[in-house]
Amino acid sequence: MITASDISKLRAQTGAGMMDCKAALEEAQGDMEKAGEVLRKKGVVKAAKRADKIAAEGATVVKVAGNTAVVAEINSETDFAAGSDDFKKLTDEIIADLITKKPVDLDSALSGGLSDKIATVVGKIGEKISLRRFAVVEKSDNEAFGDYLHMGGKISVLTVLTGTTDSALAREVSMHAAAAFPKYLNRGEVPAEVLEKEKEIATEQLKAQNKPQNIIEGILKGKMEKFYSEVCLVDQAFVKDEDKTIAKFLESKGAGIAVKQFFRYELGEGIEKKACDFAAEVAEQMK
């Protein structure tokens, strides 16, 4: 016989609804463990049904643990879900898992039970949740991590400096990157096709102004320098002292100090959000 106490206990263990718990216990003939498996399977099914939903809300996270650091983006469909305790707890579990296991890609990150944890929360809150991207970064004892979280997780930046162990200095660079939105670390990282496209656009603009060919070359060089100063971190003017580039700012703090790596994750970056009226969204959630 299934009692109200059994239903309450299963609900406390799984976070599932009262009627779902009652049905699962009936299906499992009162076996608590099997009922939990039933609910878990239903959660996976529910997660699969939401696979086509666009998850552009959520949070970015950055965490440092000794010589290991993680920066990640975890998405939900709405900011309401992202603010829930279940989402925040899941985010903590994902980050802890990444730091401990140091997976090399999403497939390996989601193996070993992490995908099941995500599916369980999806089943509980009724929204698609996904680990979109992450980076596990290692440094030496002679390097510095700089972590910065902006607007409660809208932007996360992780910077690695060589030639220093000053984490406060590294964090200044991360704060700059959050504000200045560099796309590349340095000129060598800019893809050849991106450079060619920029040159092509600039050249056409100058031709449209009837500039002579011999003058175009000189102007084009200046335009490309400006392009580098906008998209390359080390060439950008430091937001706290625009008379210095990031490279020059670091040089002023000590010989040999330089940016080795940086990661800037902005929430929902590159995700095309689908417009949906509120009434239709509520009706969808009720399914």
Run of helices and strands: HHHEEHHHHEEEHHHEEHEH
| Biggest sheet overview | 3 strands, antiparallel
Span from first to last CA? 30 Å
Strand content: 15-25%
Low-confidence stretches: none
Helix content: 40-55%
What is the CATH topology descriptor of the domain at 52-138? Tetrahydropterin Synthase, Chain A
List the helices and strands and how they pair.
Elements: H1 4-14, H2 18-27, H3 32-49, E1 57-65, E2 68-76, H4 79-82, H5 85-101, H6 106-110, H7 114-125, E3 130-138, E4 144-150, E5 155-162, H8 167-180, H9 192-208, H10 213-231, E6 237-238, E7 241-245, H11 246-253, E8 258-266, H12 278-285
Antiparallel strand pairs: 1-2, 2-3, 4-5, 5-8, 6-7
Helix pairs in contact: 1-2, 1-3, 2-3, 3-7, 5-7, 9-10
Give me some keywords for this one.
8 strands; single chain; Helicase, Ruva Protein, domain 3; three-stranded antiparallel sheet; alpha+beta; 287 residues; Tetrahydropterin Synthase, Chain A
Overview of the structural elements:
- This protein is α+β, with helices and mostly antiparallel strands.
- It has twelve helices and eight strands.
- The two termini are 30 Å apart.
